[in-house]
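lol forgot to send this yesterday, sorry. C-alpha cells for the thing we talked abt
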C-alpha cells in the first residue's frame, strides 16, 4: 500500500482501502471477517467471528466498511491473512500506445493468472515528472506508456525468475523493451520508481488530482477523450496518468503549467467538470479508493441518483440521528 507507515487498520476499513495488490487480494472489504464498532449512542457492536461463511441476517460489517466514520467508530476487526510468497519478480516494460498496454495486460493475466500480485500503469508524463523531481529511471527506453508487473511465487517453483522469463513470448508483444528483476534489490528499485510519482507531483505548483475507476473496456476511450477535452480547454497542461490497471483504478492528475493565482478556482472547477462528466459517460466512479469526504461531497450528489442519496441519508439518521459523527462528510 502506497500509504504504508501512515495508514492504520481502522482507517483502511472505514475507507475500504485498496492499494497495489487488489488484483490478487481484493480491497479491505473482501478481507474483513469480523468487526467491532461503537455507535453514536454508545452501543458496542461486536462480531469478531473468524468464519468465512456467516449467513445470519444483516451483515453489519459490510455496512460499516467504506462509510468513512459517519455511522460508527471501528475499534477492532478480524482480518484475513495470507501466506507470504516464497519470492517475487518485478517486470518493467514500455509501450508505444495504451492499446499495447491493454493487450499486454490481457496476455500476462492469461498466462500467469494467480501469480500476478500487481499490475501498474504509468504514462510518459508520469515518468517525466518523476525524473524531473525525484529519481532518474535507468535502463528503460523512452516511450508513451510503461507498466510494472509483480509476479509472486506462492508455490515451490524453482528458479522463479527463469520461470517468468520462459513464459514471456517477446514475439507476440508489441515492445522490445522488457526488464525483469534479478534480485530483491532490483524489485525495490523498480517499485521505487512507481511509488515516487506522487512525491514528485507534490513538488509541482498546481496539480489537480483525481482518483477514478473506469471499466477496463472503456479506459482507452476515456483517456483519449478526456485528454483532448482538457488540452482544448487548457493548452499548457499535462496529464499525469498512472494507477492500478489490474483493478481499473486511475490517478488522472492534471498539471497546469501556466496560470495566474486568481484563476485557480475557475480552472479546478472546469477541469473537474470535464473529468467527472467523462467518468459518467464511460460508466466509471468518481472515487475509486480515496473516498468522498468533503472534497467530493457535491459531486456525489450529481453522480448518484436521488433515491441512492436519500437511502444513504436514512441509514445515517438511523445510526446517528443527532449527526455527531464526522459531520459534513460524504452526505
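and heres what i got for the seq, position by position
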Amino acid at each position: 500500500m502506497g500509504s504504508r507507515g501512515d495508514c492504520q487498520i481502522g482507517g483502511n476499513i472505514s475507507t475500504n482501502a485498496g492499494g497495489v495488490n487488489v488484483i490478487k487480494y481484493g480491497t479491505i472489504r473482501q478481507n474483513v471477517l469480523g468487526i467491532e464498532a461503537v455507535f453514536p449512542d454508545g452501543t458496542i457492536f461486536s462480531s469478531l467471528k473468524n468464519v468465512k461463511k456467516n449467513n445470519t441476517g444483516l451483515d453489519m460489517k459490510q455496512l460499516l466498511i467504506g462509510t468513512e466514520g459517519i455511522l460508527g467508530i471501528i475499534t477492532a476487526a478480524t482480518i484475513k491473512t495470507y501466506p507470504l510468497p516464497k519470492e517475487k519478480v518485478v517486470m518493467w516494460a514500455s509501450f508505444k500506445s495504451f492499446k499495447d498496454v491493454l493487450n499486454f495486460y490481457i496476455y500476462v493475466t492469461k498466462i500467469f493468472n494467480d501469480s500476478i500480485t500487481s499490475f501498474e500503469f504509468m504514462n510518459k508524463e508520469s515518468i517525466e515528472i518523476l525524473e524531473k523531481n525525484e529519481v532518474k529511471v535507468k535502463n528503460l527506453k523512452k516511450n508513451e506508456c510503461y507498466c510494472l508487473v509483480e509476479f509472486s511465487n506462492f508455490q515451490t517453483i524453482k528458479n522463479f525468475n527463469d520461470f517468468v522469463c520462459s513464459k514471456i513470448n517477446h514475439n507476440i508483444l508489441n515492445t522490445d523493451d522488457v526488464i525483469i528483476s534479478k534480485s530483491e534489490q532490483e524489485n525495490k528499485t523498480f517499485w521505487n520508481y512507481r511509488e515516487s510519482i506522487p512525491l514528485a507531483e507534490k513538488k509541482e505548483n498546481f496539480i489537480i488530482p483525481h482518483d477514478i475507476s473506469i471499466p477496463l473496456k472503456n479506459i482507452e476511450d476515456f483517456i483519449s477523450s478526456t485528454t483532448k477535452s482538457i488540452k482544448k480547454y487548457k493548452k499548457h497542461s499535462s496529464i499525469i496518468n498512472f494507477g492500478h490497471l489490474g483493478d481499473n483504478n486511475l490517478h488522472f492528475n492534471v498539471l497546469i503549467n501556466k496560470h495566474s493565482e486568481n484563476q485557480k478556482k475557475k480552472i479546478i472547477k472546469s477541469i473537474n467538470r470535464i473529468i467527472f462528466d467523462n467518468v459518467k459517460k464511460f460508466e466509471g466512479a468518481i472515487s475509486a479508493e480515496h473516498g468522498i469526504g468533503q472534497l467530493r461531497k457535491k459531486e456525489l450528489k450529481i453522480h448518484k441518483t436521488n433515491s441512492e442519496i436519500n437511502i444513504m441519508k436514512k441509514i445515517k439518521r438511523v445510526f446517528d440521528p443527532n449527526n455527531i459523527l464526522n459531520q459534513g462528510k460524504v452526505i
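The chain has a mean pLDDT of 91. anyway ping me if u want another try
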